[in-house]
Design a protein that fits this description.
This protein has 157 residues and is mainly α. 53% of the residues lie in helices and 6% in strands. It is built from 7 helices and 3 strands, in the order H-E-H-H-E-H-E-H-H-H. The longest helix is centred in the last third of the chain and has 22 residues, at 135-156. 27% of the residues are buried.
Length: 157
């Protein structure tokens, strides 16, 4: 069984969970079959409180659920050094807690990345800025997403 997948990149560089929530109404008319919700590092860089972050993620999830659009919450790649004024691990722990409490699917890219790399190999998965993943890093992120999608399909079946 094969299905053709058409991706729509609704991402915006520098986006936060707050700006994503504000943009969501303009994306829903495109009638996505599945949405990946991945915010956090920019929220962290701006020093957003993890509770405020989760509040934004919960509002996004609620709007998607109300629209009947399946979604997967996603963490991002680990950070090799502090990002801005926040603590990325606090953001990811808040996201994990929310996903568990709400029973929403989570592609825990940060955890998957950490389990499949060591310090030396992890450094080779970033662009020169050491924040954004390169092609190898994106491939690892895709593996984590694929694992999450497989769980989602099993639940739906």
């Amino acid at each position: 069984y094969q299905r053709r997948v058409h991706g729509i990149n609704g991402g915006v560089p520098g986006a936060t969970s707050r700006s994503g929530l504000q943009r969501l109404p303009s994306l829903l008319p495109r009638r996505p079959d599945l949405v990946t919700v991945q915010f956090g590092l920019n929220d962290c860089a701006l020093g957003m409180d993890p509770d405020d972050y989760v509040e934004n993620i919960a509002a996004i999830a609620s709007k998607l659920q109300d629209a009947g659009v399946p979604f997967v919450l996603c963490s991002s790649c680990p950070t090799l050094f502090p990002v801005g004024d926040g603590d990325a691990e606090e953001i990811w722990e808040a996201l994990r807690g929310y996903a568990l409490q709400s029973s929403y699917p989570l592609a825990d890219i940060e955890q998957y990345w950490s389990e499949h790399t060591d310090e030396e190999s992890a450094a080779s998965m970033y662009l020169n800025d050491m924040i954004h993943p390169n092609d190898r890093g994106h491939a690892l992120m895709a593996q984590a997403l694929r694992k999450s999608f497989a769980k989602l399909v099993k639940v739906a079946a």
